[in-house]
Write a structure and sequence with these properties.
The N and C termini lie far apart (59 Å). With 164 residues, the protein is mainly alpha-helical. The chain has helices spanning 3-29, 32-49, 56-77, 99-109, 112-123, 128-135, 139-156, 158-163.
């Protein structure tokens, strides 16, 4: 593949998946700069070492898994685990006033396995079956992760429920 073909492939794949993968990386990395580094690694892997995909769903599932794994590897190898929320929240679906930032903070705080399931289900409208295929876990495991993720968020965001 020559440089023009690589550039063209990168641009088309980035247009399709870039925003979604960036949001997933930000939720895991808790820092937009680190998320961009992860995204760069993911697209390098896509361009130079990706398997042959059966279809777009297979490609998307592979990219999500690679993004998660790259985030995990980056966090393991890095001593910096600071939470930085100085990124543009407008890229996420709107919430009411201050609750928007608090919901994101609580999403950041969720354990990784719950965070991924919740983000894919609520932010990207994945079905339980699609999440199951993407994460290579059973549907019942997906349902349990969603349930536990919601329970944790409910407890952490209880103050907003009491305000009503």
């Amino acid at each position: 593949m020559d440089s023009e073909q690589i550039k063209s492939k990168f641009e088309s794949k980035y247009a399709i998946y870039g925003d979604m993968l960036y949001k997933i990386a930000v939720l895991h990395m808790k820092n937009p700069d680190d998320a961009e580094d992860v995204l760069q690694e993911v697209f390098i892997k896509l361009l130079y070492s990706a398997p042959i995909f059966k279809d777009l769903n297979h490609e998307k599932a592979w990219l999500i898994r690679v993004t998660q794994n790259t985030c995990r590897d980056f966090l393991k190898s890095s001593e910096k685990k600071n939470v930085s929320l100085d990124f543009d929240l407008s890229s996420f679906p709107a919430q009411d006033g201050d609750i928007r930032l608090d919901v994101l903070k609580q999403l950041f705080a969720l354990p990784e396995k719950y965070k991924t399931a919740v983000v894919l289900f609520y932010y990207y409208d994945y079905s339980v079956g699609e999440i199951s295929q993407t994460l290579k876990i059973s549907k019942s495991a997906v349902k349990m992760r969603l349930k536990r993720g919601r329970e944790i968020l409910k407890i952490e965001l209880e103050e907003y429920e009491n305000e009503k």
